[in-house]
Amino acid sequence: MNMSKLLIFAGIGLIVIGLLWPFASKFLHLGRLPGDIAIKKEGFSFYFPIVTCLVLSVVLSLVTYVIRWFMK
Predict the structure, then answer these.
(1) Cα–Cα dist 9/3, whole Å
(2) Cα(first)–Cα(last) distance of the chain, in Å?
(3) What is the pLDDT of residue 58?
(4) Are the CB atoms for 14 and 6 separated by under 8 Å?
(5) Shortest CA distance to 5 belongs to which of 56, 62, 67, 57?
(6) Contact at 8 Å (CB) between 45 and 36?
(7) Cα(9)–Cα(14) distance, rounded to whole angstroms?
(8) Which residues lie below 8 Å from residue 50, measured CB to CB, with a gap of 6+?
(9) Entry pTM
(10) Dmax (CA) of the chain
(11) Measured between alpha carbons, how far is 66 from 12 in angstroms, rounded to an integer?
């Protein structure tokens, strides 16, 4: 597969993810999973979605594995 096709598929994938994100975040609670770090103090708030990052990393790794498997 050449680079132009890869970029086209990546762009289409990002558009689809961007369109589905508002609906998926309501049902999947992405960004508010147990284990995400949230610190709220007076005049200061810090949020780091570490578990959400791990879940997304695993999902994206599986997707890329499946895509590579189909492209053989």
Answers:
(1) 10
(2) 10
(3) 94
(4) no
(5) 67
(6) no
(7) 9
(8) 35, 36, 37
(9) 0.59
(10) 55
(11) 17
Which tokens sit at 69? 């498997």
pLDDT tens sequence across 41-67: 999 999 988 988 898 899 889 988 988
CB within 8 A of 37, min separation 6: which ones?
46, 47, 48, 49, 50
Looking at the predicted structure, is the pLDDT value of residue 14 above 80?
A: yes
Structure-token pair, residue 61:
């790794």
> What DSSP state is assigned to residue 36?
-
Specify the pLDDT at position 40.
92
Q: Extract long-range pairs of 21-30: CB within 8 Å, 24+ residues apart.
A: 30/55, 30/56
Residue spans per domain, the chain: 1-28, 31-72
Euclidean distance between CA atoms 47 and 14, whole angstroms: 24
Q: State how far the Cα of 23 lies from the Cα of 17, in Å rounded to an integer.
A: 10
